[in-house]
Structure formats: C-alpha cells, structure tokens
Amino acid sequence: VTHVVAEQNSHSDVLAWIEKHEGQCVPSVNVPHLLDVSWFTESMSSGRPVNVEPRHNLKNALEILARSAFFQESDVRYLGFTRAASTLKALPYKLQSVNQAKDLPWCGGHCMIVIQEILEHGMCREVEVIKNNEHYQTMELLTGIYGVGVRTAQRWFKEGIRNLSDLKTMECKLTAEQVSGLRHCKDLQQQVTLEEAERVGQLVKDTLQRFVPDVHITMTGGFRRGKEVGHDVDFLITHPNENALSGLLEDAVGWLETQGLLLYHHLKKRKPALRSASSSMDSHETCYAIVALPSSSSPWNTDIEVKKCNSEDAERIAHPESPNSLNSRTWKAVRVDLVVTPQAEHAYALLGWTGSKHFERELRRYSLREKKLSLNSHGLYDLEKSCFLPAQTEEEIFLHLGLQYLPPSDRNA
Ligand code: DCT
Ligand code: MG
User: Fold this and answer.
1) Predicted ipTM?
2) What is the mean pLDDT of the chain?
3) Is residue 234 annotated as part of the catalytic site, yes or no?
4) Distance CA 370, CA 361 (A)
C-alpha cells in the first residue's frame, strides 16, 4: 500500500486508487491512517472534491517538520517551520498557487520548497520520510507521555526503547510524574472535550469555593481561545485579598484526595517575584494534576458538593489499574493545571496562560525587540525607564505594547 501511495501524483489519483481497491485491503490496513491526511477522509465523507483545501495539509506538513526539528533540539528550524505553519493557519483564503505563497511572511526558503511540492504533487517526500522515520515515531510516542520531555525521550531512544512495553521491560527509572503519565496514558492521549473541560471547571469551582467562597477562577489555555478540544484544562485563580489564597491549593488537593478524585499532583511553590528584567520564567504557585473526572452520567458529577465517598467508587477511582475497561469506567483521567496569582499580576498571568505558546513567544519577542519592554506572566518591565508597568486588564497590556487589542479567539497562532 505504501508503495502504491508513494507512486501517486495527486490527491485525486490516491482517492481513485482507494476507491478502486475498496474492500480489497487487508482489514488491518487503515489506508487514511497510513496517509495521515484528515482532510482526505473528510472530503470522502462530505462528498467535496478532494483537492479543494490543501491548506490544512500544508500546515500539518510544516508542523511535522517543526516537531522533527524540535526532537533534534534545533530551535532555529523549529521556529522557522512553526512560524510558516502559523501563517498558513491564519490565512483567510485557500492557498492555490506558489505565486500566492511567495509574499507570505516566514514562508520562504525551505518552507517554500515544501509548499510548492504539496501544491504541485499533493505531498512532500521529506515529510513522508520523517513520518516513517523510527526516531520521529518513537519521539512522538515517548514525548506524548505526561512528564517525558525531549531530553528524556532522546536518552531512552539511545537506550533502545521503541515502545511502551520496552519502557516496562527495560527498567527505566521513572519519576512519579512519568509513572502516572504512563499509567493513564490511554486517557491522557485522548483529547479533552469542551464539555469535559466545563465539568472539570465545575469540579474546580466546587472544590475551591469550599475554602474561599468568593475565589475568582478563569479557564485559560486553548479553551479560552475558543478551541473545542485540548490536551489539558488550565485555570487561573485569584482573589483581591492575597491572604485568602495562602494554602488554598494545598486545601483543594487535600479535599480532592479524600474524595478519590486526584490521581496525581505536583505542587510548585511561588518563587519570590523575578526582578530580572529579561526573565521570561513563570514562578506562580501552580498545581499540575491529573484528576479522575467522573463521567457525565455518574452520580459524582451531579451532587459533588454533598456526595459522600462511597467505598466502591473510591476504590475504582483510587486504583486506576483495576480490571474495569475504559468503557465500563465511570471516570476519565484528565490533566489539569491550577495557577494562583495575586490580583496585581492577574492580567499578565491571564495573557500568558491564555496562549497559544507560539503567540506568547512572538508577543514577548516583539515587546522586547520593538519596545524594549520585557513581558512575562508576572508583569511588564520597561528596560529604559527601569520600572514595571501595572495593568488591571489584558486591554491595558496591549495599550502598553502599542498594539491593537486581540481577543483570545484571535490568539490561536
Ligand atoms: N504556559 C505558560 N507557562 C507554562 C505552561 C504554559 O505560560 N509553564 C502558557 C502557554 C500556553 C498556555 O499557558 C496554556 O498551555 P497549554 O495547556 O500547554 O497549551 P494550550 O494552548 O492550552 O493547548 P491545549 O489546548 O493542547 O491544552
Ligand atoms: Mg491547555
């Protein structure tokens, strides 16, 4: 099948080939998966012509090249491909010709070769080679485990690890975070839906309000930018009285644990405010957690405030390796980040934690290079006047930067 696909010149040829061979493939061969072109299957089911929208294909290809560069720790190449993918993502029209692409920002050089190949041939050989590369596939798999970064994945690859069972048999020393990541990897690899994120939000609210009834909670990250799915759910927590926030995360963690709803957590204490003008480090008090989110039909969800932990439920939730299959389980492991900020830093933390990561990176670069202002999720430091610029809202931060305000939905770079 790979041979035939590689021989094709255009999307329509591939489609014709698949239609002709429908039912003749061995059942284990999932042709669209092999091609990894989601627009292709979408087009087939919607009846739209196949090659109307190469934009997603182009973006996906550039993102694969970016991730491959990231796995090789090549920051310059990673940034170059990410910027080009981001440009294509934001394009309000269909890219149909190389001519149209040549004036787009960040899309020259290597990126232009990729764009040209895809526009003309429907696929890029370099990208196809990367997708089938053992190192790339293993790095995708290993860095997909919660708690595993590029360095660790590289080390494991060099030690001969190629799949999850190798990790168990080769007796790798795993951190508590990685053990939890591995234990719940099936759940964590599934995307979190908006409906699930909202239920996590309700759980977080119910938990925190037990201790501080008027606590202020905002869902940040991708969901604040209007995304329908995410890999986790991020929250920002604040209160006008900073003392009210003291010990709140410990209390919340303690309560969730007694309910059997916490599968993993790591508390990071707030570090003293970073006065370094150029620092982009985030030192907010944070709880990185994996919660057992009760399913929507579970009684846990409907009455979480008053429901007492029934021993059978607690057992099921506290011991995720029980023989219950995913389908019969009444919970799903979901990654949750809780970030606590004093009110004075809230607007900066909100901007920082709304993302996207690439948007934040570019905003900080613009701010420093063009305005001599150092931006992080604690504040904005004027390097020339040697002072911090206070802001109560995100709009005020954009004003400080001399930029038109962008709502979260326009920050999906
Ligand atoms: N962020 C940050 N410091 C961190 C981690 C994240 O400032 N240590 C910012 C960057 C984006 C935002 O917080 C949310 O991070 P993610 O959850 O990783 O990204 P996301 O956009 O929410 O993506 P997803 O929808 O996949 O969760
Ligand atoms: Mg997120």
Assistant:
1) 0.97
2) 83
3) yes
4) 14
> What is the amino acid identity at position 186?
K
CA torsion 38→44→50→54, rounded to 10°?
-20
Pocket test for ligand 1, best of 146, 233, 357 (most atoms within 8 A of CB): 357
One-letter amino acid at 134 equals E
Q: Which residue has the tokens 């030690």?
A: 159
Place of tokens 């999932």: 30
Among 211, 201, 242, smallest CA distance to 346 is for 242
- How would you list the strands of the sheet with 285-294, edge to edge? 216-219, 233-238, 331-340, 285-294, 262-268
Q: Which residues are annotated as a binding site?
A: 232, 234, 337
Q: What is the CA radius of gyration of the chain?
A: 24
Encoded tokens for 172: 């790798």
Task: Write down the pTM of the prediction.
Answer: 0.81
Q: Quick one: DSSP state of residue 339?
A: E
**Distance, CA of 181 to CA of 145 (rounded, Å):** 6
Q: Is 292 exposed, middle or buried (0-12, 13-18, 19+ CB in 10 A)?
A: buried
Across-strand partners of 192?
230
How far apart are alpha carbons 134 and 5 in whole angstroms? 19
CA of 290 from ligand 1 middle (Å) equals 15
Active-site residue identified among 187, 232, 251, 282: 232
Residue pair 201/192 in contact (Cβ under 8 Å)? The answer is: no
CB 15 within 8 A of CB 47: no
Taking the C-alpha atoms of residue 70 and residue 359, their distance in angstroms, rounded to an integer, is 17
- The structure tokens listed for 283 are 């030192």
What the block records as the tokens of 202 is 């309700």
> Which range scores top for mean pLDDT: 94-108, 240-254, 308-322, 324-338?
240-254
